[in-house]
Write a structure and sequence with these properties.
The protein is about 35% helix and about 20% strand. It has about 475 residues and is an alpha/beta fold. Strands 1, 2, 3, 4, 5, 6 and 7 form a 7-stranded mixed sheet that branches. A 5-stranded mixed sheet has the order 9-8-10-11-12, with helices on both faces. Strands 17-21-20-19-18 form a 5-stranded antiparallel sheet, covered by helices on one side.
Length: about 475
């Protein structure tokens, strides 16, 4: 049975994602390729579309069909083959062409998806073209893809070495002290990019890094663990390997290697907020040396330490909603040099404002390589506030639950804002705390994040909010 022509189940806020072949297949991919060529300005001989893919078993056939659809609309297609998502962004930026990356990131093996971008790696979401791609693809599924007078051509180009050289040019690791680095690729695309960037796989000079590889074999069935390091269970192997090898640092990448997660020499996780603060200071210093003011973006559930560190260093922190489209939008509007999210996405002006886990990892390695101190000591000042992490609660009526929480905290010495969900912050002379309560866009869930000056205050606020959210009436 063919997948439905209604694509609402697979086209999300920022990308295409669903089970293959139940929710989408080669026919869907062909229609999406045609729609993408039209919307991204490559149809009718007006340009080319760069396409890359991850290691999932379904990726090659879907890419082939997508390219056919784009070519039918008159677009030239440049296939770069296996790539990380930031590798595709590199190609889009360097070649100034729109792109399509076939990946389902950390999702299980039966999933696949597409991340689209405009020329220069500019993001494509529901409000910036994805809804139009969906509308055209649905029409083409029902009516067929109209073939342009001159069908587009297809070519291939390997961009891995250029990607690696470009990143090496942004962060110089050649003068680092020798470091032992354990990298868990989770059988994802980190196993493809790490040897090229941190090793000699792309013909670049050797760095003073002793890389211990874990699960570098590309395998879209993920035989060892899910390629989702945000789940603590999926970094157990990395933590054990760091300890057993006496390594200086551990790095885990997700399936498409656009996010990186760090553990210190003890095997303890380093929070993405701490990584954001560390990298922000390096980027601010670079801007200061060039006589420029630095803007740094952070979303509203990163630690308060991030804006504090940025401001103390002379930078300007800018707070945004959660979600990469908002970060990328603010990056473009403000000319920010760097942006970080709690989910371990890191964005760089020098990388076309796009996110790249590899570049963030290189900054961590460079900072560590410049000092004799262990990583745990280097990041300790950026992890001073206890946090709850994101806690999900299933609720029947999310607005009513949020209203109850608002009512409970009204009249206290607090401030409330609704940039994204509801954020309540202490504003008096008592201990610092804040919490954010956000509704899921796709599930009947409320997501709670709490941070405070000490563990006891954090626990008190967390437990009070959860009791209100979860009470039954």
């Amino acid at each position: 049975m063919a997948p439905p022509s209604d694509l609402s189940t697979i086209i999300k806020a920022y990308d295409v994602r669903g089970v293959v072949p139940d929710q989408w297949d080669a026919g869907t991919a062909r229609a999406l390729g045609a729609g993408a060529a039209d919307v991204l300005g490559a149809a009718g001989g007006r340009g080319r579309l760069v396409v890359g893919h991850d290691m999932r078993p379904s990726s090659p056939d879907l890419v082939d069909a997508f390219a056919d659809g784009a070519q039918d609309r008159g677009a030239d297609v440049l296939l770069i083959g296996l790539a990380s998502t930031d590798g595709l962004y590199y190609a889009s930026g360097a070649l100034d062409a729109p792109g399509a990356m076939f990946t389902a990131s950390h999702n299980p093996a039966q999933y696949n998806g597409i991340k689209l971008c405009r020329a220069g790696a500019k993001p494509v979401g529901q409000d910036t073209g994805l809804a139009d791609v969906r509308a055209l693809a649905e029409r083409y599924l029902d009516e067929g893809v109209p073939v342009a007078d001159a069908r587009g051509e297809r070519a291939e180009q390997d961009t891995l070495a250029d990607y690696a050289a470009y990143l090496r040019g942004l962060v110089d690791l050649s003068g680092s002290r020798p470091l032992k680095v354990v990298v868990d690729a989770g059988n994802g695309m980190g196993g493809f990019t790490v040897p090229a960037v941190l090793g000699t796989g792309a013909g670049l000079p050797a760095l003073p890094l002793d890389v211990v590889p874990l699960f570098f074999e590309l395998d879209g069935t993920f035989p060892n663990h899910e390629a989702n390091p945000l789940d603590p269970e999926n970094i157990r192997d990395l933590q054990a390997a760091v300890r057993s090898h006496g390594a200086d640092v551990g790095i885990a990448f997700d399936g498409d290697a656009d996010r990186c997660f760090i553990v210190d020499e003890r095997g303890d996780p380093v929070t993405p907020s701490a990584v954001t603060a560390l990298v922000a200071l390096r980027e601010i210093a670079k801007e200061r040396d060039a006589g420029r003011k630095a803007v740094v973006i952070h979303n509203l559930i990163t630690s308060r330490v991030v804006p504090e560190v940025v401001a103390a260093a002379g930078g300007t922190p800018v707070r945004t909603r959660v979600g990469h489209s908002f970060i990328k939008g603010e990056m473009a509007t403000t000319g920010a040099v760097f942006g970080g999210e709690h989910s371990a996405h890191y964005y760089f002006r020098d990388f076309w404002g796009a996110d790249t886990g590899m570049l963030a990892a290189m900054h961590v390695l460079a900072a560590l390589g410049e000092t004799r101190a262990p990583l745990s000591q280097l990041v300790a000042e950026y992890e001073k506030y206890p946090a709850s992490g994101e806690i999900n609660s299933t609720v029947a009526d999310a607005p009513a639950a949020v209203a109850r929480v608002r009512e409970a905290f009204e009249g206290r010495d607090t401030t409330v804002d609704e940039l994204d969900g509801m954020t309540v912050s202490s504003s008096g002379s008592g201990p610092m705390w804040w919490f954010n309560l956000r509704a899921s866009n796709t599930e009947p869930l409320l997501r709670l994040n709490v941070e405070a000056v000490d563990a006891a205050t954090m626990a008190t606020v967390r437990d009070e909010v959860l009791a209100i959210v979860r009470e039954t009436r």
